[in-house]
Amino acid sequence: MADIFPFQALRYDPSKVSPAEVVTQPYDKITPAMQDQYYAASPYNLVRVILGKPQAGDNEQQNVYTRAAASLQQWRAEGVLVPDPQPSIYLYTQTFKVPGDASGAIAERRSFIALGQVEDYDRKVVFRHEQTLSKPKADRLNLLRATQAHCGQIFMLYTDPAGEIDHALRQSGPPAVEVRDQYDVLHRIWKVSDPAVVATVQTKMADKKLIIADGHHRYETALTYRNEMRKQASPDLRAPFERLMMTFVNMDAPGLVVLPTHRVVFGMKGFAIFDMVAKLQENFEVEDLGPLTDAAASLDRLHQAGKDSTAILAVTSHGSFLLRSRAEQHSKSLAGLSERQRALDVVQLHKLVLEDALGMSEDDIRDQKYLKYVRDAGEAIEEVRNGANVAFLINPVRMQQMRDVAFAGEVLPQKSTDFYPKMLSGLTIYSVEGAARGSASGGH
């Protein structure tokens, strides 16, 4: 089912630039401060393409998108970005410390980068698990139209319990690229051009279904772009715009770490802690843990409670409350949701807590009117100390839960999963325009 292809990636020439100075975190993880740091690191830093700075006087002819396209064109002309000579797939490993693991354990996540066929969801090859928003998709579509290039990684999951694909891709030589990022994650890339190895991987992937772990907005942007391009060209499923650069990870392999994303509520007028608690008691058993003097102990209670049922930790200026779901829940907010969704902490948080107890609408949540998403529990708690109404800390969605929801054709609330670490942008680039030119001249 999953058609994958080698490609001639555009890559930074390490003799002209240091990879560590030009690659970036994914565009949606780049803060303004990080953007400034990337700009200062190198005139060839990829941030100028994936998240450029607006300038005074920008218009339809001159803007962040046209400057992104010009940067790519200039860097190719200067030989800073060069296409690999042979079609390849790229082994990609990330070595890292697991956040929150007090033992300091080191993990490695193995994956490979290749082109994947862009498939409509109804073909049941690619499955999503999160909702998307229109604004980020419009932004990424404008960038793709201008640059005709994919610079970031679409994180795809497949299942391979025996690890046959990872085994086929094992390399013994030095990596082509090695970068340690600002989070102390070591990223390595090996170029795999052996036709026999590539064919083996293609064959073993042929019966796989794919779940988008990260990159929903960019995948749906690629779908829209493909549909636009189909109107301008004769039908050909081998056309470059029919394919997208993807990074494939075996969901059965070690090193796949999913972190929770916590919710901080702020700016709600008339917010009263014990009014909230009274409403929460309609659907949850609420345990008052008292003042939050030991955050680690409260989080440990959350983790332990989450082993048996839904558990949410509400942190307020009064103290913290442990919420455990009641056996019987009759909220209208859960109507129409499957049992597999109702059992998820993040769904109960959105429906029974944010909507029912706090009175937020779906639009409020989608537009983040009173809501902030925070990965670090300590940061979420600090937000409350600095005046936020309440923080809700949750356990991560388990891999099996996400898989069941995705394969059932259902979606979770936005930011339900946070796969760690993030995949760097700029390690490989897929030039749609360049691939089209290569095909026209008889290349691959």
List the helices and strands and how they pair.
Layout: E1 4-5, E2 10-12, H1 19-22, H2 32-41, H3 47-50, H4 64-77, E3 81-83, E4 89-97, E5 106-117, E6 126-127, H5 134-147, E7 149-150, E8 154-158, H6 164-168, E9 177-180, E10 186-192, H7 195-205, E11 210-214, H8 216-230, E12 243-250, E13 257-259, E14 262-265, H9 273-280, E15 284-290, H10 295-305, E16 311-315, E17 320-325, H11 339-342, H12 345-357, H13 362-366, E18 371-374, H14 377-385, E19 390-394, H15 399-407, E20 418-420, E21 430-431, H16 432-440
Parallel strand pairs: 6-11, 8-12
Antiparallel strand pairs: 1-5, 2-3, 4-5, 4-10, 5-12, 7-21, 8-11, 9-10, 13-20, 14-18, 14-19, 15-17, 16-17, 16-19
Account of the 3D structure:
It is a single chain. By secondary structure, the chain is α+β, with helices and mostly antiparallel strands. The protein has 16 helices and 21 strands. The protein has helices at about 20, 30-40, 45-50, 65-75, 135-145, 165-170, 195-205, 215-230, 275-280, 295-305, 340, 345-355, 360-365, 375-385, 400-405, 430-440, and strands at about 5, 10, 80-85, 90-95, 105-115, 125, 150, 155-160, 175-180, 185-190, 210-215, 245-250, 255-260, 260-265, 285-290, 310-315, 320-325, 370-375, 390-395, 420, 430. Strands 1, 4, 5, 6, 8, 9, 10, 11 and 12 form a nine-stranded mixed β-sheet that branches. Strands 15-17-16-19-14-18 form a six-stranded antiparallel β-sheet, sandwiched between helices. It has a two-stranded antiparallel ribbon with strand order 2-3. A hairpin with a 5-residue loop joins strand 9 and strand 10. Helix 4 runs parallel beside helix 5. The chain starts with a strand and ends with a helix. The model is unreliable at about 440-444 (pLDDT under 50).
